[in-house]
Amino acid sequence: MRRLKVFRSLVIDSLDATTKGSVKYNVWMGVLTFIMLVGMYCYAIQLDQGLSVTGMNDRVSWGLYISNFTFLVGVAAAAVMLVMPTYVLKDIDFKQAVLIGEGLAVAALIMCLAFVVADMGGPSVLWHMIPGIGVFNFPNSMLTWDVIVLNGYLFLNLSIPFYILFRRYQGKVPNPKVYIPGAILSVLWAVAIHLVTAFLYQGLQARPFWNNALLGPRFLASAFAAGPALIILVLAIIRSFTSFKIETKTIKKIAMIVTVAAQINIIMLISELFKEFYAPTHHSESAYYLFFGLEGKTALLPWIWTAISMNVVATVMLTFKPLRENLKVLYFCCGLLFVAIWIEKGFGLIVPGFIPGPYGKIMEYLPTKIEVGVTLGIWAMGAFIFTILAKTAIGIELGKIRYKKKS
Predict the structure, then answer these.
(1) What is the 3-state secondary structure (H, E, C) of 93-152?
(2) Per the UniProt record, which residue ranges are transmembrane (predicted)?
């Protein structure tokens, strides 16, 4: 009963803290709420008229929704790059950032699930995947593995920070014997969520663009570049608008992770390009369409070449230590890298897998306004959730939110 009382008090105090703030905070939350409402309106149209209101069709059946899902799986997995040094390697410099990283992982995973629901057409079809009611088809289907690892990773990223914050809310020290095993498991689970997602694509034999042994490792490399890059940008905002102290050396250490991962990602990209274009076969047509266009169809050309240019520029700049340690340059490079990998792992990976089709038909895909509206709404929901989680965690860490015992 006492724990329920403390939990109830935590919820009330958190609501009190997250509904109050500066003018900038209120404007930020208001803008996110407006974008979410626009997204809900667009989703209502999709529910009413079906997926025909999107740019997807029977030729290109995965589009903007699955592109964002794939990218956000990587963002969620990136939290492990803070969890491992903090809880496993005992690096004190990361302790200030790890709860922020795990909050970002929770928001990213919720967005992942939302994008899957949007892509399925609506929540009414989810019963097909409920074990015992629908056809879960475990362990034969890679999709069921993906469902398990994503929900398992979400549980880990909710339970570990909650335990730590719940103890600190009461003024107690968290017991390492309780959360360290979960932290170690989350490290392994983070690798699993991205590898299983890669295997989901690699297992589709009719899509040769995805039948690439480097797909899984490159998923991890791009995730460990884009995810920590976003964490750096978030930490920069927290440093500017809150009293929560984030040491510069912590940001510089995360920047090193971003740099190494971005370099590995570039090397793997070069390897893939060599494989596709040095000795091309008819299976290289999807890559030709993506990078050079096919039969006058060039919808993705500006996207992919912009992404590669941004990727290369950001990676080269981060490679030089004086540039990397200049925080303004670092933030600029992290922004470039985040957008570049979003394009590359989105449009640059998902859409070309369907073009040309098995019979050589080229049908291009571009998202509709409805798709863009739903997508922006889901991103706004993720930002809204993360803001609430971060404000609560920062309040507890600073001692502003504490359990008050009633006499």
Answers:
(1) HHHHHHHHHHHHHHHHHHHHHHHHHHHCCCHHHHHHHCCCCCCCCCCCCHHHHHHHHHHH
(2) 27-46, 66-85, 97-118, 147-166, 178-201, 221-242, 254-274, 300-320, 329-355, 375-396
Task: Name the 3-class secondary structure at 294.
Answer: strand
Question: From its phi and psi, is residue 280 left (phi > 0), alpha (psi between -120 and 50) or beta?
Answer: beta
What would the two tokens of residue 296 be? 């006058």
Residue 8 lies in a domain: no
CA distance 95 to 113: 28
> Burial code of 110-127, b = ≥16 C-beta within 10 A, e = fewer?
bbbbbbbbbbeeeeeeee
pLDDT tens column, 222-265: 888 998 899 899 989 988 888 888 888 888 888 998 999 999 99
Distance CA 154, CA 7 (A): 20
Cα-based distances in Å from 17 to 138, 165, 190, 396: 43, 15, 31, 10
Our measurement of the distance from residue 179's CA atom to the centroid of its chain's CA atoms, rounded to an integer in Å, reads 23
The identity of residue 232, as a single letter, is: I
In a domain, 16, yes or no: no
Is pTM beyond 0.85? Reply is: yes
Helix runs in 278-326, H state only: 285-291, 301-319, 321-324
- CA gap 313, 320 in Å, rounded: 12
Indicate whether 2 belongs to any domain. Answer: no
Residue 97: closest CA among 403, 394, 396: 394
- Domain ranges, residue 188: 22-397
Give DSSP secondary structure letters for 161-206.
HHHHHHHHHTT----HHHHHHHHHHHHHHHHHHHHHHHHHHHT-TT
Q: Nearest 10 degrees: CA dihedral of 291, 70, 198, 193?
A: 160
Grouping H, G, I as helix, E, B as strand and the rest as coil, residue 365 is: coil
Number of domains in the chain: 1
* pLDDT tens figures, 97-150: 777 888 888 999 999 999 999 998 877 777 777 777 878 878 788 888 888 888
Tokens in use for 57? 């069709």
Position 63 in a domain = yes
